[in-house]
Design a protein that fits this description.
By secondary structure, the chain is α+β, with helices and mostly antiparallel strands. The chain is 16% helix and 38% strand. It is built from two helices and eight strands. β7 (105-110) and β8 form a beta hairpin. The mean pLDDT is 95.
Length: 123
């Protein structure tokens, strides 16, 4: 299974303090809008998202169809195919994709410790 680009979406208390901290350890702003309380930051191929007030827990995120620079991959496994494979493995879902659709979609699961995992396809 090809899951696409990986990032960690962090639920932060103070986006300005978090931005400053991650800049000190080598991350740079890649995308986002601090005035809307979200930033995507990179250090090499490592990607983190800082989100203030948008969700309760940190989230592991996979983006089928993208590389770590949010560039489209020519060949990728569609999110609906990934969902079917995970269903076949008996993985429980917290949200699902309508498998009769095409294009952008997302679904989510949780690992055994309750950590949310988001699969978010943008094309």
């Amino acid at each position: 299974m090809q899951l696409g680009a990986f990032s960690l979406s962090l639920n932060v208390k103070d986006i300005h303090a978090s931005k400053a901290f991650y800049e000190k350890i080598g991350f740079e702003v890649f995308s986002g809008d601090i005035d809307q309380n979200w930033l995507i930051m990179k250090n090499g191929k490592t990607v983190i998202g800082l989100f203030q007030g948008m969700f309760e827990k940190n989230i592991l995120t996979f983006n089928p169809g993208w590389d770590e620079n949010a560039q489209n991959l020519e060949a990728f496994e569609d999110i609906r195919s990934i969902q079917k494979k995970l269903k076949a493995e008996g993985i429980p879902f917290t949200t699902v994709v309508d498998e009769t659709t095409h294009g952008p979609a997302s679904f989510s699961i949780e690992d055994p410790d309750g950590n949310p995992i988001l699969f978010d396809q943008h094309r």
